[in-house]
Design goal:
- The complex is a heterodimer of chains A (116) and B (115).
- Chain A contains no helices and twelve strands.
- Chain A is mainly beta and 116 residues long.
- In chain A, strand 5 and strand 6 form a beta hairpin.
- Chain A starts with a strand and ends with a strand.
- In chain B, 0% of the residues lie in helices and 50% in strands.
- The chains are: A mainly beta (116), B mainly beta (115).
Chain lengths: 116, 115
């Protein structure tokens, strides 16, 4: 069965410092992996996705994530945090090899707090 | 291009009442999905429509929940009668194709509070 673990419920960083949001997954096959972001009172927005191409994936707003199969990880990073990055981030997995390939399995979310 | 629209954005109802949530997908998107996040838990899949047909409703929690998509356009999700544990945020998404690789567009969600 697929599952996603986001290791931190909250991450607090100072503006201008690096961001690291951790995600580990469990999947029986070759997964697709995503990061979504939800800003306050907004919808869920796709940040980036990994679908078995390059293991280092670049997304919007300067975020990137690296797929590491040996570690079953898909951590999200950004070199320099901005106040506008304050939001909740979700790591998501899906397995295109299974019949129900349209279902997304969500992590519990990590709230990113940016200190001025 | 208009995005996925959900309304109401918030709803507060009493236990035992009925509530209907609505989702308008992006025009031309045959695939429509409902997800739910109850307090303190992960976002969970509820069901998937392809046009007006239910492709998969395995995530629907019980028979108090009824989803429809008449004519393959907008969708409604009715909860009758509502219980306290139904409180949460209900998200709708739509896509052109049924596989996740194509990506979904999500609405802003409906926050349902049952008191």
């Amino acid at each position: 069965a697929q599952s996603v673990t986001q290791l931190d419920s909250h991450v607090s960083v100072s503006e201008g410092t690096p961001v690291l949001l951790r995600c580990n997954y469990s999947s029986s096959y070759s997964p697709s992996l995503f990061w979504y972001v939800q800003h306050p009172n907004k919808g869920l927005q796709l940040l980036l996705k990994y679908t078995s191409a390059a293991t280092l994936v670049k997304g919007i707003n300067g975020f990137e994530a690296e797929f590491k199969k040996s570690e079953t990880s898909f951590h999200l990073t950004k070199p320099s945090a901005h106040m506008s990055d304050a939001a909740e981030y979700f790591c998501v997995v899906s397995d295109p090899g299974m019949d129900s390939n349209y279902q997304l399995i969500w992590g519990a979310g990590t709230k990113l707090i940016i200190k001025p | 291009e208009a995005g996925v629209t959900q309304f109401p954005s918030h709803s507060v109802i009493e236990k035992g009442q009925t509530v209907t949530l609505r989702c308008d997908p992006i025009s031309g998107h045959d695939n429509l999905y409902w997800y739910r996040r109850v307090m303190g838990k992960e976002i969970k899949f509820l069901l998937h429509f392809v046009k007006e047909s239910k492709q998969d409703e395995s995530g629907m929690p019980n028979n108090r929940f009824l989803a429809e998509r008449t004519g393959g356009t907008y969708s409604t999700l009715k909860v009758q009668p509502a219980e306290l544990e139904d409180s949460g945020v209900y998200f709708c998404a739509s896509s052109l194709a049924g596989t996740v690789n194509y990506g979904y567009t999500f609405g802003s969600g409906t926050r349902l509070t049952v008191v």
